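BZIP domain-containing protein
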Amino acid sequence: MAGLGFHDILRSGSSVGSHREAGTCKPDWSDLLYHQAQAGAQAHRSQLTHSPGYNSTAGSASPAPARDPAPRPAAARPVSGADKYLTVLLDDFIVQDRDADDPDEQMLDSLDSDQSRHTDTCQTLSTSHATTTTSSLDGKGDDALDTDPDLNGLSKSNRLREKNKQAQRRHRQKEKELKYEHDSHMKTLSTTLNELVVHNTKLRSRNHVLECALSLKREREKPSPTQTLENTEPIYVPSKGWEGFTPNAALLLTVREQPFLLTQAHLKNMQQQDFCSLWKAFVEGMAQCLVDSAGPNGARAKLRIEELKRELCSFCAIISLLRPALMRRSMGSNMEACNSRGSQNGPEYWQNLEMSLQLTERQTQELLQTRQIYLEGLGKLLRERADLYAVFQSQQIVCFESHLPSQGFARTFDAAEQLSENLREEQRIWTQMIAVTFRRTLQSWQLATMLVQAWPFAPDVLAVINCAADHVGA
């Protein structure tokens, strides 16, 4: 009787009615209807109790009453109008029950549909994860997943997901290791490249020194005859500690093969060609010493460079004091051609020269301080010179009387003396920059390298200092 519905009850009732008409069975209709309803309710409760979504705490049913083993026999009675009316009512009720929605059945249907959708979703996810993680498992199949102790107790889809995460972590770790190796290799290559650049600069500097020494040796001048010191005016040479100048009869120079004396008369009568010739002798001697310093007589060559450095600094100090215009004109021109055309070398030339000097950090700082002192003094002098130029331009010519022009002449004369003093001060700070760089900051071999590589021009000290400042970002 489990699972009987109203249609079954109706069929049972119709069969009973037919038997009644035939006279074979005469049960009571009301009793039969009662027992059929009790059996249907009991079957419905049993189905709800054993269903997967049944909540025992919320929907527990009381035990069904005991059923009678068999319906009670009833006395036969004829089919009346009430029975037919009841049959019609049952038909209407059955139709309404078929169209109506039972809440319990809706719940069971929804639970069944949710369970089926969940099963389909799990199968789809398992298939997709198994497909996407095949390449990331490095050829490991289900056996590797089953034997992994870290993945025990997980479903197949979760194990695949966890295995994929582990593979991704290993891949990221490998990428980090490769990136670190590449960075280390790049740093090593960069360091090697910088060392090669410095070594190449040294080789180019040495090659230039050798070429210059060879060319100067071929053009070596004949030694000049020895001069006498009778009736010569003393010249002021720098003292031993370079605190000042001391009077001396002459300056002894050993830059040429035969030593000679440089007197004040020679300095006053010196021409630009003579200055360039003497400068060339210094460059030639230092170039030869640089070549010899790499050989077995290196110590002797270094001492010779020290002597030439001392003589060159003394000569520059004396000529700057007696003939400032000659010194500035000669050092700003092409000494090999003895013309006034200045150096046409670009910044790259002086940058290579600065790199060949291999300046230390202390030397660079001293050069920057020297440049700052020179530029501050030069700026002050140029502002004063602009005021003096205004005085010269204010001078007017008056033809009627001479008093006003006389006053203008006096003002102009004073301005000229101030301008002369201004020019001497500029020469002093420029000579100071050259002397500090040559004598104090640079070592002997650095000064020799700078003079040889700058030939046929004098080294532009300010350009070299600016290159050093750019090199350190100052």
